[in-house]
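Sample intake sheet
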Amino acid sequence: MIRKRTEHRNLLLIIVALLLLSGIFAPEYQLDLLATAVLYGLFATSVDFSYGYAGILNMGSALYFGLGAYITGYGLKAGINPILLILIGMAVSVAIALIIGYVGFRVKASQVHFGIIGLALTLGFEQLTISLYDITGGSNGITNVPRPTFSLFGMEWTLTSPTVYYYFVICVVLLSFFLLWKLANSDFGRAMLALRHDETKMETMGYNPLKVKMSVTGITAAFSALSGALFVPISGIAYPGLFGVTLSMSVLIWVALGGTGTLIGPFILGALLKLSESTLSSNFEEIYMLIIGLIFVTMVILAPEGAINLLKRLIGWFTPQRSKNAGN
C-alpha cells in the first residue's frame, strides 16, 4: 500500500511538471484544449471518489457538471462575480445530491436503482433546459459566455487571456485533486472502503453508513459542479448536452478503464481521451467515434485492471520482486 501511494505520488509529480511546462511551451490556441482536458480529468476523479472508494454508483453525474456550467454561464453574462457563481453552483449541486441521496439511501435502494434515479434526473434536467428557452436558451444553450474578471482581496483579477486562465484552471484542479486525495487516504477514506466492502459489518462497528454515503455524494457533486463551472468560460457556451446521458456514461467508462479507486487513473484517462477526441474529430470527422470505441476495446484487453497499472508497467514503475535466494 505504501509503495502504491509512492508510485502514484511520483506519477502525479510528473503530471504536474508537464502541465506547468505546457503553459510555457504549448501554443496559446492549444491551452484551452489542455484546460478542458484537465477539467474533464477532475470530473472523472470526483466520480471515482464516490464509486471507486465508497461503491456508490451514480449514472447521472453529468447533472452536477451541467448545473455548475449553466449557473456560471448565466451569471457571467449577467456580470455576477464568478467566484460567487462557482460557489452557488457547487452549493445547489450539493443540495440536490443530498436530497437524492437521502431519498435513495433511506430506502436502501440498490446500486442499480440509485444509478437509475440519477440517470432519470439527468434526462429530466436535459429536457428542462431545452424547454425553458427564455431562461436557458433552449437547445442552443447559453452562448457567448465571457471569460471571468473579478475582484478578490482588493485586487482585480482578469482571466481573459488563455494562458492566464489555463494556469488558473491548473491551480484549482491541482488543489481539488489534492483535497480529494487527502480525503481518500484519511480515516474518512477508510470508512468509505469499509462501506464498499461490507456495509452491515461497518454498521455493527458503530459507524453510520448513511452519513458516510451522504458526505461522499455531496463531495462528488461539489467537485463535479466545479469542473462544469470552470469549463464554460473556455467553451463559451453551456448547452443541454452537458446534462446528457452520453457524458454520464462516458465518465463512468473513464473511471472503470482508468483504474477504479485510484483517483489518478481516471484523471489521466479522462484528460487523454478528451484530448484524443478533439484531435480525432478534427481529422477523422466521420469515423472518430469508431476510433474512440476501438481505443476502449483495446484498453479493456490490454489493461483490465485499469490504465494506471498499465502505465506504471510501461514507464518502469513496476519492478519484479527479488528472488528469495538472491544474496545467499
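Comment: The chain is about 75% helix and 0% strand. Residues 4-244 form one domain.
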